[in-house]
Amino acid sequence: MNKYILPILIAGTFLGGCTPESDQSQPKGSAEDLETMQQTHAVDENGSENHADIVLGVNKVLAKIKELDTNKDDNTDAKSLNANGKQIEEEWDKIEKKVEKSFPEDYKNIEESLYPLIAELKKAEPDVAKVNEWSNQTKAKLDLFRMKAGQ
Fold first, then answer.
1. Where do the segments described as Disordered lie (predicted)?
2. pTM of the model
């Protein structure tokens, strides 16, 4: 069963990027993730300005994860993966407190895959299969969250 999950996630990610623009208006991810994110929107004193900062930060984190995806393969050296992990962590740290304050449930949801991704990337010999798994999960959650925070 587990050996089928990674190929399905990879295929889903690839096919998700190949859909026409009209289909991309639908959020990607599980119904549970979407429901969690819809239910947990907290209003902040700074309103949309704070949310705009969050969306910008999420875009930067996503860009770093996508950069990781384009640069990694089975032959990628550990130093390169370690550097990518550090960059992802630095970008997340810039918005982490705002996300935690304004969207506490979404914060928990995102970090369930983001922290394991960063931890795997920091290892002396990161497991590329685990990096792929955590990367795909984190991207899906951040995409959903970006849509929610941008509303």
1. 16-50
2. 0.67
